[in-house]
Amino acid sequence: DAGITQSPRHKVTETGTPVTLRCHQTENHRYMYWYRQDPGHGLRLIHYSYGVKDTDKGEVSDGYSVSRSKTEDFLLTLESATSSQTSVYFCAISGGDNTDTQYFGPGTRLTVL
Amino acid sequence: SQQGEEDPQALSIQEGENATMNCSYKTSINNLQWYRQNSGRGLVHLILIRSNEREKHSGRLRVTLDTSKKSSSLLITASRAADTASYFCATDSSGSARQLTFGSGTQLTVLP
Lengths: 113, 112
Known about the structure:
The complex is a heterodimer. Chain A contains no helices and 11 strands.
């Protein structure tokens, strides 16, 4: 899985609580992405990063924030989780000689009760 | 909004048969990619075709691209049970951040 890990892999939380998901890469790739995957919607981009401290919004960014203080780590935070944020979250990276292809982590299954 | 839409949503075939999946998209693109996702796993990149290419092969995979029709097809020849997975097309029409827009996928089941 191209040197990408996500933690935690599974999490159950309650509405209104803050949640932080972590993506860690060992490839030294420049670009990192957070997606959510829901039935019938494929993958939708939440936020992405094009360098340390350089981030931007994706298609479904409302209710989410991100931070990237080091090349290897990209954090996704749900400030106050809602049931609509129950989903599977994937991190992806791209960079090196081929910036077009994205490599995905194993995913985090988040349930908000 | 989704850029790519796969067709069919689900496909069931016998081992050894060929599987064809189609993808349509809406805006001009730099490239189109196909990814596979096994149940409970992350996506794995299969093949990339650039906007100036019409056909590309990789092993048992053949991808075609018709930019005039804004469509692509993925052909898997001589399918195997291990090809059972969801297949997604993804289009890159963005700038420097290499953003991809994914379709909703085709669920392929290959029966032994």
